[in-house]
Write a structure and sequence with these properties.
The chain has 15 helices and 13 strands. The protein has 461 residues and is of the alpha/beta class. It has 3 domains: 118 residues, Gyrase A, domain 2, CATH 3.30.1360; 132 residues, Four Helix Bundle (Hemerythrin (Met), subunit A) (Up-down Bundle); 157 residues, Rossmann fold. A 7-stranded mixed sheet has the order 3-4-5-6-2-1-7. It is flat and about 85 Å long.
Length: 461
């Protein structure tokens, strides 16, 4: 990735497209104020603009035509999001007015911002670290109060500060090793035991962070919950009942669902992605075969499986085989149609599965609240432990695991030595561990990583 020139003045629409009460065009860079003065006519002329003040006026094109009445604010560097001069023009929102205003700004010398370039400038200027930059996107995409709380903690720098502290401690250990290597006569003697104690403390801190990833991933991505079972077990009815709306077609004809249907609800503070699937049975045609293939692929990806059993019919061979396949996975055996005379009893399942059993009626709603609680209990155990230091991103988790691996190799060098440790190798492993942490916070990060991260942002952020 070729880094954009920070001397450019960039501009973009910073609000979603469409008709609304308010739209914002944002500029950042050395010419932001000069461009704004060319197109903005204040209602009350001011000899000079004051930073962080709102001014009412009109946007005028070069021919003198009034485009819109707006509120304009100028924020003087370095006390801005990007640490450059920033101008924000608050206009009425609509496709025409926003496009016209942005075009006018670009005609006056601004460049269209790349995705995430405003936040990239905040990172490159040192205003935020890379975990905070990524947290901006987490805040925007948060779907629940719990995920927003964790994202806000990341945005305030909680995770970054913890990682910086660990990294600084490892740098101190590395400095002592390198001093012993470079100045063996002047430096104080470094014993393997002293170094092992320091490594143990930082290893423990890293392990506590990595242990938060499972819940953190659920907060970020949601709990993929697949509703599976034989045709006509009531899968679509259960989806509709959990959603409290008619999302899936329900008929008495077996095999109605041929494709995957996914909807989202919130349970226990986490986003639950409910996926209704085609019934599991020998396929009768090519279309049903494709649906069943997609079902099995979705089951392999699932965080949690709700296997639906028809309580008004005896346990089938297909059900028994499916329950055996789910052994050892996070899954619930859900006995549906308890509003009808029960043929399938819970005792019939004692030898067939060790999965928790939940009786329900998708038709009447009986047992649905108990099912929701069972989903939360199975997914979260003791409940969410929300903290701004929670790891929510796979990228962070991978670097943490890599760092722990390098520290384990460092400890191995210290434990296996019979005489003096191979301090050169110890220093090498420590440098790699420190580099992994720097990849998370942005202290040591390549252009390709930055491009991948900021390409996910919208143009105006």
């Amino acid at each position: 990735m070729t880094q954009p020139d920070p001397a450019d003045t960039i501009a973009a629409i910073s609000t979603p497209p469409g008709e609304a009460g308010l739209g914002i065009v944002r500029l950042s860079g050395p010419r932001a104020v000069a461009i704004a003065r060319k197109i903005f006519r204040p209602h009350r002329p001011h000899a000079s603009w004051r930073s962080h003040q709102l001014y009412l006026g009109q946007i005028i094109d070069p021919q003198g035509e009034i485009i819109d009445e707006v509120l304009l604010s100028w924020m003087k560097a370095p006390h801005t999001y990007t640490r450059q001069d920033v101008v924000e023009i608050n206009c009425h929102s609509g496709y025409g007015v926003l496009a016209r205003l942005l075009s006018l700004v670009l005609d006056q010398g601004a460049r269209l911002a790349q995705p995430g370039e405003f936040t990239l400038r905040a990172f490159l200027s040192g205003r935020i670290d890379l975990t905070q930059a990524e947290a901006v996107l987490e805040v925007i995409r948060a779907r629940t109060d719990a995920s927003l709380q964790v994202a806000a903690g990341h945005l305030q720098g909680s995770l970054g500060r913890s990682l910086v502290q660990i990294r600084e401690a490892l740098l101190d250990l590395l400095a002592r090793v390198e001093a012993a290597l470079d100045f063996p006569e002047e430096a104080e003697e470094l014993s393997p035991e002293t170094l092992k104690e320091g490594l143990a403390a930082q290893t423990g801190a890293l392990q506590r962070l990595t242990a938060t990833y499972r819940e953190g991933r659920l907060l970020r991505e949601g709990l993929l919950t697949v509703i599976a079972g034989r045709p006509n077990a009531g899968k679509s009815s259960l989806l509709n009942r959990l959603l409290d709306l008619d999302r899936a077609i329900v008929t008495e004809i077996p095999g109605t669902t041929r494709d995957l249907i996914e909807e989202v609800i919130t349970l226990g503070g986490i986003m639950v992605r409910l996926s209704d699937t085609a019934g599991l049975r020998p396929a009768r045609d090519r279309l049903e075969e494709l649906g069943i293939q997609r079902t099995r692929a979705r089951l392999a990806q699932a965080d949690l499986v709700l296997y639906l059993l028809d309580g008004s019919a005896p346990l089938s061979r297909e059900d028994r085989e499916a329950l055996e396949e789910l052994a050892g996975r996070r899954a619930l055996a859900v006995i549906n149609k308890v509003d009808l005379p029960l043929v399938l009893q819970e005792t019939d399942l004692q030898g067939a599965t060790s999965l928790p059993l939940v009786p329900i009626s998708a038709l009447t709603g009986q047992g649905i609240e108990a099912l929701k609680q069972a989903i939360v209990d199975l997914a979260l155990g003791g409940g969410l432990k929300l903290t701004g230091e929670m790891v929510t991103q796979a990228r962070h988790q991978q670097h943490l695991e890599n760092c722990l691996a390098y520290l384990a190799q460092t400890r191995g060098l210290l434990v296996d030595c019979h005489e003096a440790p191979a301090w050169e190798l110890v220093a090498l492993e420590l440098r790699e561990a420190i580099r992994e942490l720097g990849e998370i916070t942005g202290q040591e990060v390549g252009d390709e990583v930055l491009e991948r991260i900021f390409s996910e942002f919208c143009l105006g952020k």
